[in-house]
Fold:
Amino acid sequence: MGLLVTDLPQDVLIVIFLCLPVEDILFLRQTCRALHVIGSADYVWRKSVISFDLPLDLPGDAVVASLSNNELRDAVVNALKLDRKWRDPNIYPRKASCIISRCDAFVDALQILPGGKWLITFQVEQSLSRTTIMSLWSLHDISHAAITFQTKFRGRISSHHAFHDRVCKEITIAVGSRIDDSHDESVRVYKVSSHAPKLSPPSLALGSIILETQPRELVEFGRLLEVKICGDIVAVLFGNGMERGMQLLCFNTSTRVRVVITGLDLFHASSVYCLFPQHFAFVRSGQCRELMLYDLPRSVLESSNVEHSQCEIGKPRLTCDLIQNPDVHTTYRISR
Structure:
């Protein structure tokens, strides 16, 4: 009688599973009890999802290494179902609802927050004042989408970003805007309650502006390139030509401490910028993909008596080349 695949040692089976795409792992789990056990191991799923191409709907602060095989498997299955429906030419939307019908204000930008329950839209009124209307929509009942928070400000947005704290049930929205073609740019940060609405249509949520720069306050920093937000930290990237370089303005929305990071060079100017709870990073795009990870200044992360300060970017905590063997996956753990 020939050797069965289940007669192989367990470590060999694990290696075989790690060489398979997640779709095949799902199928193999259904063949017998022995392969079901191997295909349900946390280690197998934590390694396998690294090479999974589709985006997974995981909590914003979740670490793959801390999730169980059940949580990862459910996220993978949902992603596969969504991808299959998206590619199926025979599936059409069951219903399309028009939530914005104003003809005198066009939609300049929008963002759906992770989970698909909240939508942020930016509309520009076609008038001489160029006023932007920012609206937060509740999509909990998709057939009755309604505005739960709305505000107006002068100018058009140049960058925006939002962070949903599901524990505190708050949505923080950071907006960078410019008044026409002038150099007068501003940054505004709003906090809005994200408690699931119980009324239909929902009433306006409680919201407040926690940061608004004064006119011409940001002129010295240069052109506003991008705004990011993560937790209580708002970071705004500015560019001021090659002579003065770039600067990163970090602001803690809880302590109101502001720190300006200077010394950014050509590498940073040609890279994609990311923000994390304790760090920020620049990833160079193109053929030579390289990542540089930096610590956020301690003064902006902790309580400090100094409200405003300035510091050099310093040396990166981590530098790594992102071009590597596609069959080799490296995980970096950053200690605080």
Summary: Residues 324-329 have pLDDT under 50 and may be disordered. The longest strand covers residues 156-165. DSSP finds eight helices and 17 strands in the chain. The helical segments are 10-18, 22-28, 33-38, 42-48, 69-87, 241-244, 266-269, 298-301.
